[in-house]
Structures are given as structure tokens and as C-alpha cells.
């Protein structure tokens, strides 16, 4: 299955760090230089760097640049102990999301800024448009859930969600192939965005729970996805 642009960048950057080409504490090329080197967009590079920073593999210092982490354990195994979860089933990952994301959506509805509600709504609408055009909407899907995590104003929860999203990337594409799943996901996203915009915490929690439970039910009916 073809990797998304930012996934290709993450893979190549991790390989250079592990091989020692980029050493601990070393300043990396600029975002523009990385985009030119990988022959991919700045947007893809920015998303890759955000994920690598959340995984504590790089450090982004505004005004100074991007630096390789000084943590030797992360350099030996960039995904840390969470790597073990790669062997878990999609069902287990969805269950983990079911524990985390409904409350995250409720916190978001209570704490989100006006600018953040606008971005969440825009991402929901963008995903619908990408589906109508038949284009790849996976990145927008991930960004929607991440925007909710950021709106919850809890960095630890946001980092947990990033790890889960990275681990379940392939499985999320597989669930998209299930009957009517794309249409239902787009509807849930739109309704969740409205609930957050209206500061309806209970409704946002309930909708997010139903959204993830719907995917769990679909996977339970298709054991081959595990």
C-alpha cells in the first residue's frame, strides 16, 4: 500500500538518525531544504516534523531550527516502548481510542478557542470534499482528531493520540474500505465539529464514542482486519 508523503519522510529521517548520519544534538536542514531533498511538499515535511517532535525524536526550537534528540534510547529505537503496540490488532487500537477520545472531545468542547473550533469545522468539511472527489483523505482525518486533542488543552492526551494515530495508520485505511464507512465517518466528523462549536460537551463525547464504536462493530464483523 502506498505510503503518504509525510510517512515516507518520517521513515527516511528515522533511518538517517539510526544510521548515525544525523547525530544526537545535530541541527537538521531547514524545512525548505528537506522538502527539496525529499522532493515533497513543505506541508508534508511540516507534518513529519510534528510527528517526530511528538515522539521526541527531534526538537523544534523556534528561531533556531530542528535538532536531533539527545536521548540515546530514542535513537536506538525511535518509537520507544510503544513499538510493541505495532503487533496489536486494529481492534485493540480502536479500543484504546474509545477510552481516550470521547473524553478528549468533551474537554475540547469545554476549553476550545474560537480559532480552534473554526479549524475543526474546516477539517470536517475538507474531509467530506476529499471524499466526494475520491482523493486520499487520511491526512485530513488524522488532523481532525489531532485538532480536537489540541483543543482539549492537554498536551499529554494530544501526544497519546499521536502515538495511536501513527500505530493505527494502515488499519484506518482498511476500515475505510468497509461498506458505508467513509460516509458515516464524514457525518460523525461534521456532527462532532458542530457539538464542539456549540460547546456541547456531553454531545461531543457521545458522538465521538459512537463514531469509534461504529468502527469497532465493523471490525468485529470482519476479523481479517485484525
From TrEMBL:
Pfam families for the chain: FCD, GntR
Signal peptide: none
Residues in coiled coil: none
InterPro entries associated with the record: GntR_C, TF_FadR/GntR_C, Tscrpt_reg_HTH_GntR, WH-like_DNA-bd_sf, WH_DNA-bd_sf
Domain of life of the source: Bacteria
Keywords annotated in UniProt: DNA-binding, Transcription, Transcription regulation
UniProt domain HTH gntR-type: residue ranges: 3-71
Gene3D superfamilies for this protein: GntR ligand-binding domain-like (1.20.120.530), Winged helix-like DNA-binding domain superfamily/Winged helix DNA-binding domain (1.10.10.10)
Listed name of the protein: FadR/GntR family transcriptional regulator
Source organism of this protein record: Cohnella silvisoli
